[in-house]
Amino acid sequence: MPKAAPSLEQVPAAVRRALELALDRKALGPVLLEVRTIAGYTDWVLLLSGRSDRHVEGITQAIVTGLKEIGIRNRGADGLSDHLWDLLDYDDFIVHVFYHPVRVHYDLESMWSDAPRVELGLPDEVMDTSQLAHLAAPDPMPGYRGDTFGALPGELDDDDDDDDLPYYGDDGEGDLAEGESR
To answer: Domains of the chain by range and CATH?
Structure first.
């Protein structure tokens, strides 16, 4: 049986504040998901859309600055060079601020379809992203975000092969063909 969606009052104050800061900067289509039981690395995911790279940058800066003012600092960030998909990691929650066509392309809401969605109770003009449907997708599309969170600087840039084991095991023999045995 699916878990009931939490109310906004049950959401931690820092996550609610991030949402408020984004809305103050006219973010659109906010979605807040509780992922604590299905993700091992965070409890909440906040997804937001912006109209342009500059709008995404403004939303991101408002969140970072506003949370820093109350003593909450992000532990990681990705995408801040082009502001097409800014990802902010606050450990207990992650914020994704998208240029809207990038959000549509990656469709994280579908990836997290099992997650309870918080009812935000916001007006239609904030929730409706159809006004952004005319925006052109960037070419090239930015790469997937968050692949290196938790790694030390340079940790994933090594030249050794010691940690590059095959997916199927460390014996180097590969997968067996159907009906084959060792």
So the answer is: 8-132 (3.30.460.10)
